[in-house]
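Archive entry: two folds, one per protein. Generate the first.
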Amino acid sequence: MARIRKQETTTRAAAAIVWLIAVYIRLSREDGGEESGSVTNQKKILIEYLENNFDGQYEIVDFYIDDGLTGTDDTRADFARMVLDIEQGRVNCVLVKTLSRAFRNYADQGYYLEAFFPQKKVRFISTGDPRVDTYTNPEAITGLEVPITGLMNDRYAAKISSDVRRTFDYKRRNGEFIGAFADTIL
């Protein structure tokens, strides 16, 4: 499972670090069901990033995949497993496609990016907009773009949830079926 790549680095400090990478992938319920093309595409994008843009030595510790879960879910099994691996020192770098793949909750984003990851000396990389790399550009977290993106992701999740509840309420009031499968009584 582990993939190791060595590349010449420009500084001695960077050369001394071997990044133990957790590749975190999440696909929400709204995005689809089965191990989707989105999960497969996220894997490809993140591996390509490592192969073409990552400077230094690294090893992929594992792929942590929460397929079919929203980023606001506090019980994401693989996210929790990744956090445990960080706490146990097995991971020192987290790689995600975008901030919204890891966080849909603004408070969680702030906690992990501003407190938990720095305390554990964990590098966090998001390859999408905004691009974040807390090792090469630690100031990105305290700028405007990351917090604003986090707030937008949080509000987007809240809006979708509200819209879905409103639709379900409408259907209930009108006697329409809202479950996954209609029971047929023969």
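Generate the second and append.
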Amino acid sequence: MRRLRSWFLRLGGLFRRQQRDREFSTEMQSHLQLHIEDNLRAGMTAAQARREALMKLGGLEQTKETTRPARTSVL
């Protein structure tokens, strides 16, 4: 019985992790969009605005990978 309970807890943790990853991706996209909009208001072209925003955030995938250990250790 204890093994079955442990298995269900692990399975539930997997789904929660996927949900947290999706939420984090959405949040990162939101931050990126805010930076892009700021850059556009500053007079940059769309391509420049996106590039500068990505550089400011350190790149989306790189940021996700560097923050993943911190996010998973807390949760």
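Annotation attached to the second fold: The chain has three helices and no strands. The radius of gyration is 18 Å.
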